[in-house]
Amino acid sequence: MVSRWCRAEDRLFAVRSLDAIEKVKRILPHFQETISDAQGINHHLMSLITYQDIADLTGLTRQTVSKVLKDELVGRPKLSGRTRQKA
């Protein structure tokens, strides 16, 4: 429980005090791995996450995430870039 509390405080600090570029840089390493689904098919997380997902996790807008990735983080693996349709 203590470790979860520390992680929550760390995330809150990041959301409240870092600028947009640092927020995006901080979250991207968490999506640099490959996972397996129930059928055993491997998926690279960077190809599954959307700009809107990153925006939601960092407290930014999708447009800001797109601009940061385009302007500041050139050379990273390409994200899907798709957005979710509203229900």
Q: Which features does this protein show?
A:
single chain; mainly alpha; two-stranded antiparallel ribbon
Q: Can you lay out the helices and strands and say which pair or pack?
A:
Layout: H1 2-17, H2 20-27, E1 34-36, E2 42-44, H3 45-48, H4 51-58, H5 62-71
Antiparallel strand pairs: 1-2
Helix pairs in contact: 2-4, 4-5
Please explain how this structure is put together:
- β1 and β2 form a beta hairpin.
- The model has no long low-confidence stretch (mean pLDDT 80).
- This protein has a two-stranded antiparallel ribbon.
- The protein is mostly helical.
- Helices cover 53% and strands 7% of the residues.
- It has five helices and two strands; from the N terminus they run ααββααα.
